[in-house]
Amino acid sequence: MKKALLLFSGGLDSILTAKILQKQKIKITPICFKSYFFDCNLAKKSAKKLGLNLKVIDFSKEHLKIVRFPKYGRGKGINPCIDCHLLMIEKTKEILEKEKYDFLATGEVLGERPLSQNARALKLIEKEANLENQILRPLSAKLLPETIYEKKGIVKREKLLSISGKSRKSQLALAKEFKIKKIPFPAGGCILTDLEYSKKLKELFSKIPDCDGDDCQILTKGRIFWEGSNLIVVARNEKECKEIEKLKKKKDLILEPENFSGPTVLIRGFNQKIKKEIVIRAVEFLLNYSKKLPLKEIIIELKNK
After folding, report:
1. What CATH number did the domain enclosing 19 receive?
2. Does position 186 have pLDDT exceeding 70, yes or no?
């Protein structure tokens, strides 16, 4: 039995791709990449339903580098989709060669995503990864140049498809054919496409060029305020209060209300000493976002450990 590595997001496209290849008696190993900006939760659920053993690769640090300095530009947000997908392909290629898989496949659909799934981008990624005509895209294969796997008869081209564009009609019809009852939502999940988060991340890169993954993640955990090069994060709910605690660094300060209900506030000085006036400003934010303050004494705990 031939075996293939399949880039797998857990969305409908990647599920259908797995089904199409399985129909040709090919053993599938799905692979998903996680970073500071997206996870593999959907991929895990979908792989489990399909009875497949998912490989999860954490490439967070390498991914952060290309988010900072993309070679092939960004989308509407700060998302470097072409660079990101190229990095995934290069990492998958390493596993492909090391573990001797027969070929590499993806669930990409020609024209579905304007930045990374147009004909030019697909060719560019193949060329940069030194995999020209060596990435099989079963959903759109008949609209693309024939791969070496099809030429060698490893995969039968006549059993592949010619889907293109953003419409999901063909995929939904195929899902019905394969008796897929629960259709997962489109698998994007990359916070880099969110315009509000993109603004926050660009500001972080500008103020703190050597920021790390924890700094990028803390931007999603509350209201964000800058006092010079000091970052103040004000939690919006109980969940964020707990998450802020988990992302606290050694020199961070945390403020918590003791005798009233209010948000947890984190101050990050990025290895510089946090001055008293910054703490006072953070206290002001805490009080402003507290719904009901005590009439007499206000007690706030300051944590630095």
Report:
1. 3.40.50.620
2. no
